């Protein structure tokens, strides 16, 4: 899902 | 990882280190809002709980650990080691006016109704407004030490650079996260007035003081 990518950001 | 993301992270790190060094070198946390620092510690703690559940990269893990560690070190300085210098009389912003709406909003507007995701959303929303007690304190006293303004500048610059990072990611990866983008925009806008004063006063060698 798209939002898990955001977790790579701080 | 792109240049905006990396410089954003480094700017964030610079802000945190500047604040810690300022307090350590001057043995004083005068002019610093302990309430904003509590909010930032809450932000990092609720956002980086995924340290326990997923590994992304060595960079990611180390930065998260450093941010959390520095946030609690700052709290230790303000509320314990240098407590006598903490200017609590001027740190009167009511944080419940931030925590309650932000908590409510993170339950209503999130990507997924799960505990970790709600806590992540809560941290994104809270970060966008966590600087308000500090800005309120400066507006109350009418001035800020120059080193404090450097801290605020890098802290504000970090989210502005993330905005460029998100534009980059949208163009080249087709990726966007509306929650982070809207909160990041709000966060950056809150700094605009300060950025103006920083550029027109501090960078010209003057102290940041507000007209009475």
Automatic annotation (TrEMBL), chain B:
Entry's Gene Ontology molecular function annotations: ER retention sequence binding
Subcellular location: Cytoplasmic vesicle, COPI-coated vesicle membrane; Endoplasmic reticulum membrane; Golgi apparatus membrane
Topology in membrane: Multi-pass membrane protein
Alphabetical UniProt keywords: Cytoplasmic vesicle, Endoplasmic reticulum, ER-Golgi transport, Membrane, Protein transport, Receptor, Transmembrane, Transmembrane helix, Transport
Example of a GO cellular component annotation carried by this entry: COPI-coated vesicle membrane
A biological-process GO annotation: protein retention in ER lumen
Annotated InterPro entries: ER_ret_rcpt
Residues annotated as transmembrane: 65-82, 119-139, 151-172, 178-199
Keyword Cell inner membrane: no
Family in the record: Belongs to the ERD2 family.
PANTHER family (alphabetical): ER LUMEN PROTEIN RETAINING RECEPTOR
Protein name: ER lumen protein-retaining receptor
Species the sequence originates in: Clupea harengus
């Amino acid at each position: 899902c798209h939002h898990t990518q955001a977790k790579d950001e701080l | 990882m792109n240049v905006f993301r990396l410089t954003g992270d480094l700017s964030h790190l610079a802000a945190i280190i500047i604040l810690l060094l300022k307090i350590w070198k001057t043995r004083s946390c005068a002019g610093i809002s302990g309430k904003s620092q509590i909010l930032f510690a809450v932000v990092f703690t609720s956002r980086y709980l995924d340290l326990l559940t997923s590994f992304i990269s060595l960079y990611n893990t180390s930065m998260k650990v450093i941010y959390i560690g520095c946030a609690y070190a700052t709290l230790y300085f303000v509320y314990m080691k240098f407590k006598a210098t903490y200017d609590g009389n001027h740190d009167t912003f009511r944080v419940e006016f931030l925590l309650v709406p932000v908590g409510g909003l993170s339950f209503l507007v999130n990507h997924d109704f799960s505990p970790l995701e709600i806590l992540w959303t809560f941290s994104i929303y809270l970060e966008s407004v966590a600087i308000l007690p500090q800005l309120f304190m400066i507006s109350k006293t009418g001035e800020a030490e120059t080193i404090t303004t450097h801290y605020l500048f890098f802290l504000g610059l970090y989210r502005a650079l993330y905005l460029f990072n998100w534009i980059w990611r949208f163009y080249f990866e087709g990726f966007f996260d509306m929650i982070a983008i809207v909160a990041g925009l709000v966060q950056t806008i809150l700094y605009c007035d300060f950025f103006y004063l920083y550029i027109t006063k501090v960078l010209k060698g003057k102290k940041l003081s507000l007209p009475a």
